[in-house]
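Table 4 source record.
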Amino acid sequence: MPISNKKSSFRLAIYVSDVQIVTGRSERTARLLLQRIRKVLGKNKGQFVSIAEFCQFTGVNEQDVRLSIDN
């Protein structure tokens, strides 16, 4: 299969809906978790949290997170 037709599933940022899938928590709790991560990392409100940063903060395996949000 040519590279141009290959699905690009490599994302850097994690979103509220992804956090919900990974943690099983509500939207509000997922949003608060991302806010807390941003605060600890010194990020501004509009900045993204990377999947790697999320995994480092929560202690969840990055490969497991990527597998669960890609499905």
